[in-house]
Write a structure and sequence with these properties.
Strand 1 and strand 2 form a beta hairpin. This protein has a two-stranded antiparallel sheet with strand order 1-2. The protein contains eight helices and two strands, in the order ββαααααααα. The chain is mainly α. The longest helix has 15 residues.
Length: about 160
């Protein structure tokens, strides 16, 4: 997990970097998620992992073991941690969230990156697009303009 501040670890200064400026961001979380994270904050080791605080060293073996335990207890399929990012993007796409908002949450500097990565998840076809337009446009009426040009204002008033 990349940090966004300078850290002093064993007398070495490390300045974390991100791939793009857009990667450095704040994201809004739901109140439900914030409640869960607040509960986790009480556990020092979880604080290290979730909030990026550096207390005691937590080995990757410990993290892997805990992750295995949580997956087993939840009865869900195990995925790579990075796949949570893709799951979040997929969830937002299925909720019809604007692609620009998704790109911002993912830290993409360009909406094209998001579209190139996740375009296969957008199920809309041309036929579906036309059906949506059908709902928005009322059937048009066809008028014959056999009348003389001076009759046009009267014709328009009759509509």
């Amino acid at each position: 997990m990349k940090q966004t501040r300078l850290m002093l670890i064993k007398q070495r200064t490390i300045e974390p970097t991100t791939k793009t400026q857009a990667s450095r961001r704040k994201i809004i979380m739901s109140s439900h998620i914030m409640r869960l994270l607040s509960q986790l904050r009480d556990d020092e080791k979880m604080r290290y992992v979730v909030f990026g605080e550096f207390y005691d060293h937590v080995s990757t073996t410990t993290l892997d073991r805990k992750y295995e335990q949580y997956v087993k207890a939840a009865g869900v399929k195990k995925i790579r941690l990075h796949d949570f990012r893709h799951s979040h993007a997929s969830y937002l796409i299925n909720k019809n969230i604007m692609v620009s908002v998704i790109a911002q949450r993912l830290g993409h500097s360009d909406v094209a990156t998001t579209l190139n990565t996740y375009s296969h998840l957008y199920p809309t076809t041309e036929k579906e697009a036309v059906l949506k337009m059908e709902d928005d446009f009322t059937p048009a009426q066809v008028f014959q303009f056999d009348a003389k040009p001076r009759m046009l204002p009267q014709l328009l008033k009759s509509l």
